[in-house]
Amino acid sequence: MSDAEATERFRIEPEHPSLPGHFPGAPVVAGVLLLDRIAASLERAGAGRFARLGVVKFASPLLPGQEAQLSWKRHGTRVRFRIERDGSTILSGEGELA
């Protein structure tokens, strides 16, 4: 597997079906949605699929409607990823690809 990297912007709209339950009256984007965005980006780029997540650190919340930027770098079967908003880290982590 060769090295690869990508960066893309995204937004989880306030109408997303998971938001009313996470958390009622003060919604935040669930971490699993953010990880799903990273996994989808890897698959779209043909970089592979997660076999396991090693470390994931959630540093701050993403609110519905806020624009964020995700980036990842693959080195062989290892991948490091990050999501930021206005230069501040929302999450960072690493994993292994199948």
UniProtKB/TrEMBL annotation:
InterPro entries: ApeI-like (IPR054545), HotDog_dom_sf (IPR029069)
Chain ranges of the ApeI dehydratase-like domain: 4-93
UniProt cross-references to Gene3D superfamilies, sorted A to Z: Hotdog Thioesterase (3.10.129.10)
SUPFAM superfamilies per the UniProt record, alphabetical: Thioesterase/thiol ester dehydrase-isomerase
Protein name, per record: Hydroxymyristoyl-ACP dehydratase
Lineage: Bacteria, Pseudomonadati, Pseudomonadota, Gammaproteobacteria, Lysobacterales
